Amino acid sequence: MNIFIMRHGQAAPEASSDALRPLTEQGRDETCLMAQWLAQQVPVFERVLVSPYLRTRQTWQQLSRHLAATQVEYCDELTPNADADIAASLLLAYGELNRQANILVVSHMPMVGFLVESLCPATMAPIFVTSGVAKLTLETGQGAVFNWLEGPHNIRPHYAQPYPLCGSLG
Q1: CATH of 2-9+20-169, one of 3.40.50.1240, 3.40.50.1100, 3.40.50.360, 3.40.50.970
Q2: C or N: which end of the chain has fewer Cβ atoms within 10 Å?
Q3: Where are the beta strands (DSSP E) in 51-140?
Q4: What is the mean pLDDT of residues 65-86?
Q5: What is the mean pLDDT of the chain?
Q6: Cβ proximity of 103 and 1 under 8 Å
Q7: What average pLDDT does this structure show over 88-102?
Q8: Helix axes 25-39, 54-63, angle to 10 degrees
Q9: Would you call the peptide bond into 13 cis, given omega within 30 degrees of 0 as the criterion?
Q10: What is the pLDDT of residue 95?
């Protein structure tokens, strides 16, 4: 099973509550860029798990313009200060149901870093840039392997394909 863990795009610094912070224009564009890049690697996700906060729901909206998903769920277990071990258990349970699945998680710092650390105990929690995506591979009975962590700042200069649908980044 492949698990892709993504941090939401850049969000406005303030709102009436943390849960209601929306994406900025840059956040929408970063997410668009990552979505187009990720769609070249994974055409369909069997399951997408999204934090219920506004900025993660908006991130998924941007992603869904370029990525297909069989099932999308909004999970309180993925909020910024939720327990990463519980979220990891949820992912492992889904992995038991479909060992060939591609799963996408859209969440927040510090959850995304702690989730990587929980699934890959030999890896320290990485710091994700906004719209950053990590790929983990879960092998039966062997735990997860940390494959890579990419962000919009890496994708844009190193990939020749233009991404014209991303507003200010195009």
Answers
A1: 3.40.50.1240
A2: C
A3: 68-69, 72-74, 102-107, 133-139
A4: 96
A5: 91
A6: yes
A7: 90
A8: 40
A9: no
A10: 84
Say how many C-beta atoms besides its own lie within 10 A of residue 116's C-beta.
Answer: 23
Cβ neighbors of 157 (< 8 A, separation 6 or more) are none
- Please tell me the total number of residues recorded for the chain in this structure: 170
Please tell me the distance from the alpha carbon of residue 148 to that of residue 51, in angstroms, as a whole number: 22
Closest CA relative to residue 109, chosen from 128, 136, 82:
128
What is the predicted pLDDT for the residue at 163?
Answer: 57
Q: What are the beta bridge partners of residue 145? A: 137
Q: How confident is the model at residue 53 (pLDDT cuts 50, 70, 90)?
A: very high
Q: Which residue has the tokens 């009975």?
A: 141
Q: Give 106-162 pLDDT, tens digit per residue.
A: 999 999 999 999 999 889 999 999 999 999 998 776 779 999 999 998 886 555 555
| Residues 49, 132: Cα–Cα separation, whole Å | 16
